[in-house]
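Morning, I've got a small favour to ask if you have a moment. It would help a lot if you went through both lines with me. I owe you a coffee for this, so here goes:
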Amino acid sequence: MSQGDLVSKDPFKQFDNWFKLAKSNPEIVEPHSMTLATVKEDGRPAARTVLLMGYDEKGFKFFTNNQSAKASELTATPYASLVFYWVQICRSIRIEGKVEKLPQEITEDYFARRPQTSQLAALISPNQSSAIESRSILTQRLNELQGKFKDDSPPLPEFMSAYIVIPDSIEFWQGQSTRMHDRILFTKKENRIDSEFLHYGENGWVYQRLEP
């Protein structure tokens, strides 16, 4: 991946190109899957897999339970890192930035468009990350909700919210069999101190090639 191979010098447009290629690849079962890393109260990192619910020129959105560990960690330290890794095409994207909660109407719209199986899965786990006696408890809750909402769509649970990661750095990684991987790092111009080998991108971004 040379600088000339970049589809765009705007990292959001570059992401859009790579993400659409991943979605079009039949070998990639879940292209929306991404690792979300947060910071615990004691300063230790915490990471888990979540799904990308959407993205635009501002940032990358995901949906979670307000009672979850990640939501509590983001409230205390509103910064996170996202990592996409599509092993089938040997590509990865790493994103870092500030996290904000999105307006409730965005959460409501997203929830309404989810399959009912996903909606009910959210409803059966109001205290996400908390210990539970057995899986049969979840199965029982699911059976009850399937009967209750057999002919209706379930409402958005009050404990669910959408968040957005507003990036100040986005790195594109293209793996090579020689291990001489290609890495291009985009950062916000105002945040970049090291100006060596710096190239000017678009919309306030600059970028550099990194050693593998």
In short: Helices lie at 11-24, 69-76, 104-113, 116-123, 135-148.
